[in-house]
Design brief:
This protein is of the alpha+beta class. Helix content is 23%, strand content 23%.
Amino acid sequence: MTHATKVMAPSSTNSPPDTPQTSLDDPFEVALSKALRRITSPAEDHLKAGNPIYYADPDTPDGLVIKHYPDGHRELVRWDGNSVVVVAVLDARS
């Protein structure tokens, strides 16, 4: 699971005027790209080790989180004391 922003070099001048352009020569863009890779890599490492990860997307209901398993299946869960309660099974995401 990766939620990183891909930094792309400017394309030809045929792109629409409202398309944001970034440059891999811009030190800020390079630093941002590296930082985003570092942010996502611990979660990816955890999944590769065979462990699920927990996270919330912007549209995840309050009090719930997504439990993402290494095989890609996901569940919407909540905690009840020390137990995890499955609220719904979600579509798989790689």
